[in-house]
Amino acid sequence: MPAEHPVDFEPSLIAPNLYSSRRASLRVDVAAICSVVIILLYCIPAPLIVPQMTFAGRPALLLSLGLFAWWFIARLSPSLLMVGRQPLRWVALIYLMSILLSYVAGLVRGLPTLEANRQDFTVLMTFEFLGLMLMVADGIPNWRRLRMVLKILVCAAAFMAFLGILQSIFAYDVTQWLVVPGLELKGTLTDFQARGEGGRFRVASTTVHSIEFSAVLAMVMPYAIHFARYARSKAARRFYGLLTFVIAGAVPMAISRTGILALGVSMAIMFALAWNWRFRYNFLILAAGLTGVLVVGRPGLLGTLRSMFLWADADPSVDGRTEDYAHVSAWFAQRPWLGRGPGTLIPDLYMILDNQWLLTLVTGGIVGVVALAALHLTSLWLAVVGFRRSTSEEDRHLGAALISTQILAILVALTFDSLGFTTFSFTLALLTGVSGAVWRLTHPARTVRTSTVRRLLE
């Protein structure tokens, strides 16, 4: 396979009749900043925030807010202008407008202090989310830098997975050694929640909850397999193969139906779209081997997971989800179009609604649900277009991974309030931006294909 992608050698149009290399060595570019965001997001425990702030004050999220400012300046400055089209910009605007309209609707109905503060928090989170998404979509200059960002993502996820495995084996919270001086601990680092018989418990690693932990790993899994297949050297492929096993082995440790279903969905999509029969056969053999390791190394774990599905109708968490429908119906009838206001359904005041689609319906109304669906479906369309345009097996495999990301995100939003968990939601923002970047880098028009945010520092 070629060491470099041929598109990377094309010059970038930065002004009329003026071109620049997209392979210049830079001190700081979008890919470098996004890599730092990933490391901060996965390697610093989620409850650690900048003092006197909410969870929007996680270091990774504040850096994402800086990315939004950078993107906005790039849209206004002729010297930083992005000359090509990007569908994600329009759907981001629609999503932002839906949040702001719901925000105004919340102010109009009158809010207690806690709800008003939560609205402000949600709007700030939205700018951070869009900042990461848009800068990845518009600012990754070439395939080489895109691969680098995704490699950092896989390595960071494997680190998080390894911590989760250690938590599960030793019943010890290793994340306490990752406390960064100067950051404030909001809540507790981890909570080993009992699940099943035999003293089994759920782990969350550096995330807030075990469901989030397993869903994030399931989302990253296709990208780990991607580099296990297409890394440039044999040693690198073995390295990413090892990381793939670590990530896959950590998902059952969370003891989460959502995680198992998410992993199954992502692997089924890759199985159908991206793999030939030889790789499918090898994958099934390796999956059987990993299952055997779990049976020997963690006796009873697979039985606990099996019972979670077989006896789901007797699970109080499932009953609780179905009982929420009556409350959702009443709230929706009161404010069907713009909802109660973003973030105003506070668990401590009302209830925990373990369904992002229903939560969006209550807080953002029909307009909010349509905007969120538009964001997912547009990203899915961009991934499909990139998949169909790709001429190499490697690029098509990456396109299939991006397709799996959006389908997985749509489905797991039915099982927990996914956008309220920042590690999951910002991983989604990153990979949604990658869909936009792949759409741009595979575009037939060179002015679109080579468009990017110009460098911040030489």
TrEMBL record:
One of its GO terms (molecular function) is ligase activity. It is a multi-pass membrane protein. GO terms for cellular component: membrane. It is found in: Membrane. Residues 243-372 form the O-antigen ligase-related domain. InterPro entries: O-antigen_ligase-rel_domated, WaaL-like. It holds the Pfam family Wzy_C. The chain crosses the membrane at residues 30-50, 56-76, 88-109, 152-172, 208-227, 239-255, 261-277, 284-301, 357-385, 397-416, 422-441. The keyword Nuclease does not apply. The keyword Transmembrane helix applies. Keywords: Ligase, Membrane, Transmembrane, Transmembrane helix. This is O-Antigen ligase.
